[in-house]
Recover the amino acids of this structure.
């Protein structure tokens, strides 16, 4: 079974702090995506990375894809209460393969 | 902006009844995926369909569960003879290009089996 492991599972921080969420697998991804989900809603795509070593920035969010395409990280700078939510990484292991999700990181940012 | 539409949003069924969950993909999307989510968990893949075809059903239980995506109309996830363990949020997603491409999710159907 192909697994995607996210850490930490829960994260509670104060407004203004920085944080990093990790997504790891023993297999190589052909592409990896990060989603954010709020209670009662479906996940919303944040970013897609496809090239080993790729770094993408989305305002205060920085996404990195590992050189070997087996891992990824999401770094949030100066977190705000509006960043609160469930962050999910999802990977596709091969062309034509389904998208597998990690178990998610539940982030709570307190004012 | 007509996104992925799922209905109903909430569904309550007694044990042994049937549950039918509907999903209308975004306009122009011919690839549909169903996922299941339990509280404080990620999404578990169930089935991937393209118009009139099941591409991958490896995540769907062999018994009681079925899915279809007809040429006309929404995709349907059907659960027969529901049990309490079927209680979960079921999400549908669609994409224009299929496997590995970004997914657009609906807001889910929350199934409660009493």
């Amino acid at each position: 079974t192909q697994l995607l492991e996210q850490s930490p599972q829960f994260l509670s921080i104060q407004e203004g702090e920085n944080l990093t969420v990790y997504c790891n697998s023993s297999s190589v991804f052909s592409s990896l995506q990060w989603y954010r989900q709020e209670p009662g809603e479906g996940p919303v795509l944040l970013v897609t990375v496809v090239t080993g070593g790729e770094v993408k920035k989305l305002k205060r969010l920085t996404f990195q894809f590992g050189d070997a395409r087996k891992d990824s990280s999401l770094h949030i700078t100066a977190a705000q209460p509006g960043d609160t939510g469930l962050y999910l990484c999802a990977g596709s292991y091969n062309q034509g393969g389904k998208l597998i999700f990690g178990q998610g990181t539940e982030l709570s940012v307190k004012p | 902006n007509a996104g992925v539409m799922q209905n109903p949003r909430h569904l309550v069924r007694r044990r042994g009844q049937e549950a039918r969950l509907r999903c209308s993909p975004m306009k122009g999307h011919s690839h549909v995926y169903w996922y299941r989510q339990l509280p404080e968990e990620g999404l578990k893949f169930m089935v991937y369909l393209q118009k009139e075809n099941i591409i991958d059903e490896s995540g769907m239980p062999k018994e009681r569960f079925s899915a279809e995506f007809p040429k006309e109309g929404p995709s349907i996830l059907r659960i027969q003879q529901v049990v309490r363990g079927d209680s979960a949020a079921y999400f549908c997603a669609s994409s224009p290009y299929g496997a590995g491409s970004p997914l657009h999710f609906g807001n889910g159907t929350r199934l409660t089996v009493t």
User: Anything to note?
Assistant: The interface with chain A takes residues 4, 33, 35, 40-45, 48, 56, 58-59, 91, 93, 98-100, 102-108 of chain B (CB under 8 Å). The CA atoms of residues 28 and 96 of chain B lie 7 Å apart. The longest strand of chain B covers residues 43-50. Chain B has a mean pLDDT of 92.
